[in-house]
Amino acid sequence: MRVKHFFLFVVGLLAATATSFAETPSDNLGSRVATIEARCDDARPEVRRTFNVYPADEVYFGDRIYVLCNEENCSKTIINDWRVYSSEDDAVVVASEAIATSCEIVPETGTSAWIDFAPQFQDILPGEKITRTDRVIELAPLDDWNRPFWKELREKLRQAPEGVLCKISFKNVYRDKNGTRQDETVAFDVVVKPRPDGEMELLQQWFDATPPELFPIVQGDRKIPRNDVFIKSSGKSDIQIDGKSYSPWLFVKIGNRKPSDPNNPTTVEGWRELEAKFAPSTLRDEITVTRLQLEYYDAKDDKAANAVIQAGIDWLSQLPEPQRRATTGAFRNSGLQLTPLGAKNVALNKALDSAFSTKTPTFNFNDLK
Asked: What is the pLDDT of residue 169?
């Protein structure tokens, strides 16, 4: 039984379109967080469900958007709620009135194996607000570069430097008071702009230089490694730390090929130089995540390592909450614990837990990869 199909049936609900905005200190192109209020349904009126979206106004082509699903107990009694394991295991649909076709973004996993879970319960106290899931939406994944929607969007952007308005929609899964699985459509608009100063050309180069066998294949409702059970390095761009080679996928989030194997830099200095080539954006932020990790693991003594940890915590603290929640998890790859960097990985995770502890931790489907 698959993760997203272990419930009996689906009842479609439509999320409300009312959206509010809050300013953030981030210097990304899109500088606001939007809050989308889900429609209150008769099945569970005591639960207020909202979605925080960042960036919510405009992004560059190739950027990522981060979405948090929050639930709040608005009643005066404890709610014995179900935890729903669903975030990036549902496709996202991108459409635009300026483009004839729409496009479905299928989530990628690092393995072709299915992992099943029994439903779990979790008390929500009166007035308590918890984060249910986080989701990352990439516009567009590099392996989707030549799909008709994205090709036409790039053509439009050559004539529209002000950007093209796109609608993003996805299904959010939750449970009603009887424990029955429900889902709802969540939708919001965002302006997609062309990347500045030759950045689009660099993305094109990365696509052209990636052999087809390194791109995933679609199996059902997800992308999986093409030639193995688990995603593996090709060995063409392994990262060098202290004289040893490591798969780029130990430092780059699964599905993020901007850049990864075989296009990524192989040294800390190379990642610094790459970071400097991009304008402030969520794409550049993902490069910063890898650069900070490599600086930490490449540090020669505890003093230098601790300085990088503090710099990383300071940087994360400045990110809007939806992005910070998802990005913090990118530092935690437990696969490193099976390498010579294992002890450093454990120390880093402890530091992140201390800096960003929450009463109810976010479940991220990527933790299963």
From this structure: 95
Handedness of CA 270, 256, 65, 359 (dihedral sign): negative
Q: What is the CB neighbour count within 10 angstroms for residue 5?
A: 14
Q: What angle do CA 11, 2, 323 make, to 5 degrees?
A: 75
State the DSSP string of 144-160: GTTSHHHHHHHHHHHH-
Is 121 within 8 Å of 81 (Cβ atoms)? yes
Burial grade of 191 (CB within 10 A; 0-12, 13-18, 19 or more):
middle
Give the residue ranges of the chain where pLDDT is below 70.
1-31, 39-43, 82-89, 114-121, 358-369
Helices 321-330, 302-317: inter-axial angle, 10-degree rounding: 150
Residue 176 has phi, psi (to 5 degrees) of: -85, -175
Report which of 199, 308, 302, 289 is spatially closest to residue 250, judged by C-alpha positions: 289
Cα–Cα dist 313/279, whole Å: 22
Helix (H, G, I), strand (E, B), or coil: what is residue 354?
helix
Contacts of 43 (CB under 8 A, 6+ apart): 176, 177, 178, 180, 182
Structure tokens that stand for 276 in this block: 């400097």
Rg (CA), the chain: 20
The tokens describing 13, both together, are 């609900």
What is residue 275's three-state secondary structure?
helix
Token output for 31:
């500088």
- pLDDT tens for residues 228-265? 888 999 999 999 999 999 999 999 999 999 999 999 99
Contacts of 208 (CB under 8 A, 6+ apart): none
Q: Which residue has the tokens 């609900």?
A: 13
Give this prediction's pTM. Answer: 0.86
Instruction: Assess contact for 200 and 84: CB atoms under 8 A.
Output: no
Q: Is the link from the previous residue into 259 a cis peptide, with omega within 30 of 0?
A: yes
CA distance 183 to 175: 8
